[in-house]
Amino acid sequence: MNPIYTTTLTDWVPSIPAEQSAALLAALESGHVLYCPQLAFQFSPAEQRFLDPAWSNGKDKNISLEHDGAPLKGMLGTTDEVATLRGAVLRFRTQAIGLIETLFPAYKRNLRKARTSYRPVPVEGRSTSWRKDDSRLHVDAFPSRPNHGERILRVFANVNPHGVPRVWRIGEPFEALAQRVLPRIPTPLPGSSWLLHALHITKQRRSEYDHIMLNLHDRMKADLEYQAQAPQVTMSLAAGSVWICFSDQVSHAAMSGQFMLEQTLHVPVDALAVPEKSPLRTLERLTARALVV
Ligand code: SIN
Ligand code: FE
After folding, report:
1. Position 128 pLDDT exceeds 80
2. Ligand 1: which of 134, 137, 160 to mutate, most ligand atoms within 8 Å of CB?
């Protein structure tokens, strides 16, 4: 399968016929990256100076906004400077959410809007450990934030001012990945979900679905032979482009690039046009049991 579906979108509030939006939805839910080379996020002339990694506080991985009323985190600067960059991040947030709501009206009522991040630091040399190394193929799963099957939908914009693309590798389809790794994943230890929650390591109880997704994430990243041998394509995401994918489903690795904005959204499985293609339903089919109880 070619994991990339290139769109002709040029507008953050696109007016497209229903059949075109249905085709985009089908591509997205079946594990494609929707690539929009003609859609760009613009920094205004006054905002251009923030295209510099020196604004990062050096401690946090990204500069981020938890929700639209929140303060900007992870940035060094005066109150005025922080307010100006916050305005740019908030404008991206509004445009990214508007894009998804316009393209996919069926998601609109059920969308849970999460963090917006600005990533001014080069991808190369960013990682501190193999588990955090996003230059290894992985599907997104977060140890402290069990999501019980809820989808992770992400909108990305390469805002590099020097024409430098962001280079990703995209791996095999989710079902093939799951079939390969599932046999090696042990069932969770009895009581472990309760204990992790009681110790505040997780924000909610970790379901068996979350246990499997974390294992997929870790086992892919830990296996260098898998990294080299897995079916994959390299994708160059141009400066001044946007792309959208379900990052809990699309096996991805960020190889190089600098200056990107990213919006995370969550979609319940029941709001999908084809819930059967979700990681939760795929894993339940392969294991023949309910994974969120
Ligand atoms: C990731 O989500 O794994 C990283 C994406 C990126 O920084 O390009
Ligand atoms: Fe990722």
Report:
1. no
2. 134
